[in-house]
Amino acid sequence: MVSQRRALLALVLVSSLLEFTFGKVVLNHDTQESERWCRWNACIRKCCPERQLLANKTCAESSEHEFTFKSYDGLREITDATVVYHVLHSNSCRSAGRFKLSPDYDEADEFYVQRNGTLLKPKDDVMPRVSYQFYCLENFLFSDRVELSAIVCYNDGDLEATADKQNACYVDGMDSKSAIWCLLLFIGNIFAEPCPDYLSVNITDGAPLDHDRLLKDGIVYDQKNYYRSGGAIFGCVCNLRRCLRKCCGKNEVFVNDTCVESPGRAISFPVYNLTQEQANASAGLFVVYGGRCLNTHDSIRADGARLYLQTDGSVYYVEDDYTNIYSVENYCIDIVDGVMSGFTCEEKESGEETFIKGNVRKCCASDQVMIGKTKTCEKSRELFKSTFLPALKSKTSVQNLVHKELNCGKNYKRLIISDFRVDDDGSFYWDDTEYAGIKFYCIDLFTIDSAENELRALVCVGNEEIVDSTNIPVAAEFHIRGIVNKQLPAAFK
């Protein structure tokens, strides 16, 4: 109740400074990054701190470029009232992926900031509304202009799943109080997963118990310790059991920067009290698999250090005179090049923006490759490990894969490109200069004209003259979604 009074008082104080002018957007940057402002009032997120903008994917000081925007009810600009927004400054995404909207190039990216702080995208069939937790606004500095746009979060490459979550509570013109109450009704299962996805296990087939509880492998999950995503139910096992995190899969070890199968090898880890080994102490630890870190952290290989797995599932890190304790969400251990080692999650340096390291969109699932002219996926775990991953490293340093088939609009075709690169933020470049966002491309292994298993890309291309990807007129004017170009690049020849 106190927070409510303070927020309302702040709103009254800000409103008293407006001198009864209308049609203005007033921004309160002095929020101390606290979401308490958003309980009863409209909030937005700004990607960079106040008086900064984005230049070359980095926040930079700029006092000459004002951060402002128009406010709307649906598609109607609000000109008869003053709208106050409380601003949180953050570009991080709880989910794995993000992309920049480009309304000048793709009409589906056209957006309108609503009175309640949501982002309306009326021409986007997948994500028409985005709540403030899942986007940030910013001025983007280019060589010839400054452009206001937004970075939008999505959930592990599943745009539809994110859209279902975000659209549950928001409609055009809904006031912020009603929207927040709706949000609170759904927050347990929708917005605030009670654990990171890499510390959860699939319990969809768990036995239902009373009071909406689920039983799986002898563990009872109550509503506070499971969540729904993509039609499945995931349980936060590490909230209920002591866990250790293994970098690779159950029967895999880490060799030459890749997880490889090690059949018949029993993999176990000694457990310590600091550096004193404890007998039979690992029996009570639940093993979760994978080495991912939060978007705000980097995964750092623990070369030259000793890692001691503790009885509570944490790791005691010793390197020369430096020691530290890492909880289960901030490390993984495994057999790395024949010895027990692992990786730790270290917070990014303050100058590094969390969206710089992005995702690579893979056309097929993780254990599949696209090895036919029909552009269809076929299962081949061996090719994925032996050919796809090494080829990917030659194109980009980004190794976080988003698995999603490329579906272009009805006026677009999918074309194959061989000469390309992927930048550190997951942006796709061809012909050295042209760009496509993660929504409009995917990469995988292809077999084309007897060229076996080469890394290629599919890109959405639209042109009435183009019949198929094997017969493109060299002088054709064509459009890649998000790009307009007058000359066919060498990659298409």
UniProtKB/TrEMBL annotation:
Q: What is this protein called?
A: Methuselah N-terminal domain-containing protein
- The signal peptide, as residue positions, is 1-23
Which GO CC terms are listed, alphabetically?
endomembrane system
Q: Which residues form the Methuselah N-terminal domain?
A: 38-150, 233-333
Write down the species: Phyllotreta striolata
Q: Which Gene3D superfamilies match?
A: Methuselah ectodomain, domain 2
Q: How does it sit in the membrane?
A: Multi-pass membrane protein
Q: Which UniProt keywords apply?
A: G-protein coupled receptor, Membrane, Receptor, Signal, Transducer, Transmembrane, Transmembrane helix
Record flagged with keyword Membrane = yes
Q: Does the keyword section mention Nucleotidyltransferase? A: no
Q: What is the lineage of its organism?
A: Eukaryota, Metazoa, Ecdysozoa, Arthropoda, Hexapoda
> Subcellular location, in the record's words?
Endomembrane system
SUPFAM superfamilies registered for this protein in UniProt: Methuselah ectodomain
Could you tell me which InterPro entries the record lists for this protein? GPCR_Mth-like, Methusela_ecto_dom_2, Methuselah_N_dom, Methuselah_N_sf
What terms describe the molecular function in GO for this protein? G protein-coupled receptor activity
Family as reported in the entry's similarity comment: Belongs to the G-protein coupled receptor 2 family. Mth subfamily.
